[in-house]
Amino acid sequence: MKKLLLAALAILGTYTATAQKTINGVSVEKSITVSGQELELNGAGMREKLWYDLYVGALYLTEKSSDGKALLNADKAMAITLDITDEAVTQDKMKSAVEDGFDDSCSSKERKAIQKEINTFIGFFKDAIVKGDHFEIAYLPGKGTMVSKNGTQIGTIAGLNFKKGLFGIWLGDDPADEDLKEGMLNK
Question: Is residue 89 part of a domain?
């Protein structure tokens, strides 16, 4: 009986381990809950630049999709998590990358319309960023885009247009990393 129980636990342990995806040592959860809304992992990948593996990014949705444009325009709950994997990612470099990302994901007219929100978002990166930090960027209709770092809420920014520009950094026509976009969209 004891051997049977141990075998059952081993099978269960194997199932649990395979339910998550591991990328560059980061365990990507198969689902997350944001303000009571359960979101399922759509896909994940690594943000690389030159020879640096900067962070693992994961996209969570209410239902699976590989259509980045539809996701950007959807007024539906979704989240992106970023797990920092390299000390090359610093507070200043994150701010600069966000600025560049909005330049690539928005037209100048769109950016001008949400510049106040962009400034607020960039202000969320006032504390040092270190290898191992976990950011969660979640959009909920009617609430806005909520940002947390290592499980602590940093702030919320209202507006679907801001969400479109922000999520466009990873899912838009000119993403920060094409391979990461494909990973998040599970292509």
Answer: yes
Q: How many domains does the chain have?
A: 1
The reported pTM is 0.87
**What is the 8-class DSSP label of residue 174?**
S
How many CB atoms within 10 Å of residue 112? Answer: 11
Query: Residue 162 belongs to a domain with what CATH number?
Result: 3.50.70.10
| Site of tokens 């129980």 | 5
Asked if residue 162 belongs to a domain, the reply is yes
Q: What is the pairing mode between strands 144-149 and 152-157? A: antiparallel
- Judge whether 4 lies within some domain: no
On whether residue 159 sits in a domain, the answer given is yes
Residue pair 105/165 in contact (Cβ under 8 Å)? The answer is yes
Tokens for 63, please give them: 């239902």
As a whole number of Å, the end-to-end CA separation of the chain is 45
How many CB atoms neighbour CB 45 within 10 A? Answer: 26
pLDDT tens, 60-85? Answer: 999 999 999 999 999 999 999 999 99
Q: Which segments within 30-177 are labelled E, that is strand?
A: 31-34, 37-49, 52-61, 78-84, 134-140, 144-149, 152-157
Cα gap 45→67, rounded to integer Å: 16
